[in-house]
Amino acid sequence: MRALARISTGAIERNAARLAGLGAPLCAVVKSNGYGHGAVQAARAAQRGGAAWLAVATAVEAAELRAAGIDGPLLVLGALAPDELRIALEADADVVAWREAFVDGLPASARVHVKLDTGMGRLGTRDAAEGERVAAAAGSRLVGIMTHFATSDDDPAFMHQQLERFVPWADQFGVMRHAANSAGALGEPAARLDLIRCGIALYGMDPFHRDPAEHGLEPALSLVSYVAEVKRARAGESVGYGRRFIAARDTWIGTIPIGYGDGYRRGLTGVGEVLLDGRRVPLAGTVSMDNITVDLGDEPVERGTEAVLIGAGLLAEDMAAKLGTINYEITCGLTARVPREYVP
Q1: Percent of the chain, pLDDT > 70?
Q2: Strand-strand pairing, 221-226 and 306-310
Q3: pTM of the complete model
Q4: Is 35 a catalytic residue?
Q5: Which of 35, 203, 231, 241 is catalytic?
């Protein structure tokens, strides 16, 4: 197989158990196809690990889980247009509200979480009085009060300001309060409240963009391909589009059939690394849609040798740092062209 994402459901289950042991019930966030890992498989593994809730971003994602036979409390975190709201309610999912008009249109059976914007600046009301009116309009349909942290991974002071605004306001309603994402849950016990909503940590990636092992997390995904061709490049010969690699000396070049069409980012040109037989080798030349090339130096490998692009010590966090992005984008960006294989 030209490229493959191997996902350990056992790792997701163990990460869920680690998070569920923090002292508040765990809501496992499986949006965006489980951050690229597969939403259905991730949800099942998270529930085996002790997740009490699941969360997604869209109504269609909620419907996908229900169609797969996944039950239990399910929260749709995102904004919902009228047609999406119908799908969410048919999936027996809780919804988020911050406008009275939205609540007024909900059936009596709906379950509502009112969102206060304490500093994220996206969804939710910034007006505490408006939030109270929405909660009153929800009446018996109100099951949760929530907010979302903007800086829990890099600015705990602002996170604490958000908490100081949120908690006293949320306490008045006598329902479940939730605010913490992965970084908030791992970094600040006071943020855990009545539920923690963890996404990135569930998949064994570090919400603080360092090493997952620092928080007892186990990366669940590895990305592999293989060496399809090995050939000699003489000094002065070039490799790849734009001739961005010109051999300074005689060397061996390996071609690996994965590229930006699979989600292996073009920005890794000149900085990416691949593991071959446990040896790190650098990319040589431009990442193309379907192939990358690596400089093997004086040590050619056999055709068919497995190439590890993520895993075995090559962290998504390392790749993200080279790209100037975050680990979330690395796994979410893997395209449907890469099959997912699930292993224990």
Answers
A1: 100
A2: antiparallel
A3: 0.97
A4: no
A5: 241
